[in-house]
Design brief:
By secondary structure, the protein is of the alpha/beta class. The protein contains three helices and eight strands, in the order E-E-E-E-H-E-E-E-H-E-H. The longest helix is centred in the last third of the chain and has 18 residues.
Length: 229
């Protein structure tokens, strides 16, 4: 396998105009070797996920986001064995952090066995926004002015690779939508988008759309399908 492509079931997926590093590259990140416990959990049903679930790392660097993901423990101090398939660095580099995107990682409860996890390295958090110079206007999922934004390099990478990967895995390049046709984003604590069921909705989702207590993933959906797209 080349080190500059995404790998899925033996297929090399090229992403033009994006720097891609997979686990073969010596500069890459590999969740199977970076931690003492395994953070992959078998393969997707029939080896094929039905879409992508986006997250934000709430860290200032790629390595911090990578190790924060692997280091999560539950209230009893037990390793949660979390992981993700992809990581988008602030300079736009796309890391594949599992050996094969057909491998399941745990990142969004029951949705994990259906969606590839994709973490975007960013301090995208309404609670942190006042401390950062990187801000955006008030959004539909945050009433606070100054919600942090992705870098332009990250937005370009998302727009480049997500349609290609969706096509490669056989998933629709789309997201849940509200009655007006806009992406159905959700704010912290507002609950999942009504009617979304793991294994039924195929395409792209944000963590905020499927969790009662999450907000992450909305910037990715807006970049791909909303006013930023």
């Amino acid at each position: 396998m080349r080190s500059d492509v995404l790998g899925f079931r033996g297929q090399a997926i090229e992403i033009p105009d994006v720097r891609v590093l997979n686990t073969v590259d010596r500069q890459g990140l590999n969740i199977d070797t970076a931690h003492k416990h395994p953070h992959t959990h078998g393969q997707f049903a029939a080896g094929r996920p039905d879409g992508i679930c986006f997250h934000d790392t709430v860290t200032a660097s790629t390595k911090a986001g990578f190790y924060a993901l692997l280091g999560r423990k539950d209230d009893a101090g037990v390793d949660m064995l979390l992981g993700s398939g992809l990581l988008v660095a602030q300079d736009g580099t796309l890391y594949q952090i599992v050996p094969d995107l057909a491998l399941v990682t745990w990142h969004a409860s029951g949705w994990s066995t259906h969606k590839i996890g994709c973490d975007v390295v960013s301090l995208v958090d309404p609670k942190l926004a006042p401390a950062s110079p990187l801000v955006r206007a008030k959004t539909s999922w945050s009433e606070r002015q100054g919600y942090l934004d992705y870098t332009e390099a990250q937005k370009a990478t998302l727009r480049a690779f997500v349609p290609i990967l969706c096509r490669a895995i056989g998933a629709p390049f789309d997201c849940p939508r509200d009655p007006s046709g806009a992406p159905a984003t959700r704010g912290y604590g507002k609950g999942p988008v009504k009617g979304l069921v793991p294994g039924k909705f195929k395409g792209c989702i944000g963590h905020a759309q499927v969790s009662k207590v999450r907000w992450d993933g909305n910037c990715a959906l807006e970049t791909l399908f909303g006013s930023d797209g």
